[in-house]
């Protein structure tokens, strides 16, 4: 019955009509027979179906012959109108059945899912063959091709020519990434060809694209950019341009040589209008630019900043918020370690980031509020918990540089009603930072904080009392105490936050501290030099400096502080004399402001001295740096020590001459490099304290003071009298060997 049903399905309308003349009884009989056959013989069933399939045509022939006898009129009608139906072969029926089987295969769902067969593998092999063909088809770029492209671009840049160049550029970028799998129409195997292709694109592509899109050249002084999307040809060429600008970003991320990166960045700066029309590629470019701005070399950083600024100026509402956030995070990451080499780069990032914040004060307020609050939370935790970890979260370079950044931002954007409310909380955070651990070891950090306050006070015309934190150092530190250790190198206060115990005992520490105090007091007074209240402001400082000069016995320190005192007093008398002639009262704010402005234009003794001093001080610092470099080049002589055995012999010979002189004293005079317990090694250990985390207590200061009180070497008793001949022998001794000094990394 099933087989018969299938045949019915397979028949056309006419055939179905013909087969429909069979009686129902025959169908029933056939059903019974088929069920009996199925029951008896299960195995040969598939064979029988195939036999039946083959016998379908003969069955139809029998049916048609029966039709001839039963209904001759209809048969004649078929002969006249449908000869194909009557004259069919077995082969036709088999073909039809094959087609039906194919239809079943493709259009009916299988009862069970098939396991992956060899067909899939064959398909993979075919795709691999296709890839191989494509790679064989890829043409090799030559110098001649590049020259032809250059000539074509200068003549008339067409869409096809641009497509060829972008495909070749894509292949060049793929070689830098190492993506050999990426399919390209071109291949580049020679480095010279790569260089000339990239150079050609950097030089000529921008002008060619503008020419092809028929973009007007911007007029002089025109700030608004002409976007390429305004061209009617943009849609047609968008895919090729997109591929090209994406390639430029990929090239930026894979290059390592600073000069090449700088050249590509200049080109990217030209292409900014194209990036503004393609948001995805623009986001990728911004990410790459921020990386180069925060980690690249000097020229690379500047070019990256210019491109960032250009994009954010023209699409503020889209990019500025996210760019500022990413730039701030990059700044914090890259100011963790501070050295004389990294300090200029950190200052550059501060200044440029302040420029970016000045683009939109509303956005800047939101960022500044969040990040200053974050700094305040760290400080609050440190004050409340009083643990080593919480102190370290505040007393580190990142925190200090962030304070300095926000001082610079508020100074740059002043006057701004939007950002003005942030001045007070920022000052409170800086003052809290100074007061957190007010011990001598953290004087360098205190000086950094005072510098930040001075910057803020000078540029925002806000009085912030910074002098007490400097004068406190003059009161607390005993400058008369002789230093425990002598040091060759001066301490560079610009690149340290914390002093070691060894540093506190050195002469260089006190020399540097007095110099720093002189600089900072002078800088702060310079910011207030034209103020009408300068004499009253300077009075506490004058009193403190006079007290210091009375107590201090070191001539160098007294000389510097006396000079500072004289300049302050001179400025006081000048301001006092000027304001005695004034005809307005203290309450008249506008008149006071006008008076101060007039004094600033004319200049005061302190401002004139400061400008001269600043130039000399900068030269001094440069000489110090170059002097250090020269010192490293010198091959200083070294006294060659005698071996231990020879020393023992000498000691036996002259035993009793110097009873009180111990071995330790000898070691103190010429410290041996090899001894683990020597003072030099202790000094090195202490120097490493600058980076290590330590408990910060006032007790440390006491310890350091205690160490200072200890004499550097024990005094020997008076030696016994000797004959002059014996003294001569002792005095002559062996000749000293002089050889070149080899300094280790530690030294």
From TrEMBL:
Annotated stretches, region: Disordered: 1-137, 657-747
Domain of life where this protein originates: Eukaryota
Primary localisation category: nucleus
Compositionally biased region (Acidic residues): 24-34, 89-103, 116-126, 679-705, 732-747
UniProt keyword annotations, A-Z: Nucleus
PANTHER family according to UniProt: NUCLEOLAR COMPLEX 2 AND RAD4-RELATED, NUCLEOLAR COMPLEX PROTEIN 2 HOMOLOG
Designated name of the protein: NOC2-like nucleolar associated transcriptional repressor
Origin species: Cyprinus carpio (Common carp)
Lineage: Eukaryota, Metazoa, Chordata, Craniata, Vertebrata
């Amino acid at each position: 019955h099933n087989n018969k049903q299938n045949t019915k399905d397979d028949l056309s309308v006419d055939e179905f009509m013909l087969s429909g003349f069979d009686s129902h009884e025959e169908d029933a009989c056939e059903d019974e027979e088929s069920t009996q056959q199925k029951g008896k013989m299960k195995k040969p069933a598939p064979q029988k179906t195939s036999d039946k399939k083959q016998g379908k045509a003969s069955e139809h022939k029998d049916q048609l012959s029966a039709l001839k006898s039963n209904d001759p009129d209809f048969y004649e009608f078929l002969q006249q109108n449908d000869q194909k139906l009557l004259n069919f072969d077995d082969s036709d029926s088999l073909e039809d059945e094959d087609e039906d089987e194919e239809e079943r295969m493709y259009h009916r769902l299988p009862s069970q899912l098939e396991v992956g067969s060899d067909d899939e593998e064959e398909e993979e092999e075919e795709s691999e063959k296709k890839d191989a063909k494509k790679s064989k088809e890829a043409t090799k770029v030559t110098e001649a091709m590049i020259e032809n492209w250059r000539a074509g671009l200068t003549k008339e840049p067409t869409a096809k020519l641009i497509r060829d160049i972008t495909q070749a550029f894509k292949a060049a970028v793929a070689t830098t990434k190492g993506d050999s799998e990426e399919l390209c129409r071109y291949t580049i195997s020679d480095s010279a060809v790569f260089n000339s292709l990239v150079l050609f694109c950097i030089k000529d592509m921008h002008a060619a694209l503008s020419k092809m899109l028929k973009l007007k050249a911007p007029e002089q002084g025109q700030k608004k950019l002409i976007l390429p999307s305004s061209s009617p040809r943009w849609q047609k060429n968008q895919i090729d341009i997109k591929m090209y600008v994406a390639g430029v970003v990929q090239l930026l991320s894979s290059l390592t040589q600073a000069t090449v990166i700088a050249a590509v960045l200049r080109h990217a700066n030209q292409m900014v209008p194209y990036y503004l029309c393609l948001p995805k590629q623009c986001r990728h470019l911004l990410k790459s630019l921020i990386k180069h701005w925060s980690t690249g070399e000097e020229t690379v950083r500047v070019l990256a900043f210019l491109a960032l600024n250009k994009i954010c100026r023209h699409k503020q509402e889209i990019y500025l918020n996210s760019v500022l956030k990413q730039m701030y995070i990059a700044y914090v990451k890259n100011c963790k370690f501070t050295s004389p080499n990294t300090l200029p780069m950190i200052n550059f990032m501060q200044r440029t980031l302040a420029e970016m914040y000045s683009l939109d004060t509303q956005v800047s307020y939101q960022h500044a509020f969040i990040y200053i609050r974050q700094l305040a939370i760290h400080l609050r935790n440190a004050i409340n918990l009083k643990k080593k970890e919480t102190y370290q979260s505040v007393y580190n370079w990142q925190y200090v540089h962030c304070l300095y950044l926000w001082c610079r931002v508020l100074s740059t954007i002043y006057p701004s009603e939007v950002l003005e409310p942030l001045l007070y909380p920022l000052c409170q955070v800086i003052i809290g930072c100074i007061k957190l651990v007010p011990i001598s070891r953290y004087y360098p950090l205190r000086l950094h904080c005072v510098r930040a306050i001075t910057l803020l006070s000078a540029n925002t015309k806000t009085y912030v009392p910074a002098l007490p934190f400097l004068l406190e150092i003059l009161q607390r530190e005993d400058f008369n105490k002789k230093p425990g250790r002598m040091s060759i190198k001066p301490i560079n206060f610009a690149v340290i936050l914390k002093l070691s115990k060894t540093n506190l005992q050195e002469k260089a520490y006190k020399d540097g501290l007095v110099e720093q105090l002189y600089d900072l007091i002078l800088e702060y007074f310079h910011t207030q030099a034209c103020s009408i209240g300068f004499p009253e402001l300077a009075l506490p400082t004058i009193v403190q400096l006079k007290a210091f000069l009375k107590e201090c016995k070191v001539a160098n320190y007294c000389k510097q502080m006396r000079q500072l005192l004289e300049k302050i007093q001179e400025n006081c008398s000048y301001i006092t004399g000027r304001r005695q002639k004034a005809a307005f009262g203290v309450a008249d704010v506008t008149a006071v402001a006008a008076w101060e402005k007039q004094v600033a234009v004319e200049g005061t003794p302190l401002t004139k001295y400061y400008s001269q001093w600043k130039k000399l001080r900068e030269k001094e610092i440069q000489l110090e740096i170059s002097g250090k470099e020269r010192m490293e080049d010198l091959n200083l002589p070294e006294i060659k020590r005698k071996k231990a055995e020879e020393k023992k012999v000498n000691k036996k010979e002259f035993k009793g001459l110097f009873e009180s002189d111990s071995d330790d004293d000898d070691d103190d005079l010429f410290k041996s490099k090899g001894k683990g317990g020597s003072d030099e090694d202790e000094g090195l250990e202490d120097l490493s304290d600058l980076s290590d985390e330590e408990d910060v207590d006032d007790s440390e200061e006491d310890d350091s003071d205690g160490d200072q009180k200890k004499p550097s070497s024990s005094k020997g008793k008076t030696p016994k009298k000797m004959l002059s001949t014996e003294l001569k022998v002792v005095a002559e001794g062996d000749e000293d060997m002089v050889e070149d000094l080899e300094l280790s990394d530690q030294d």
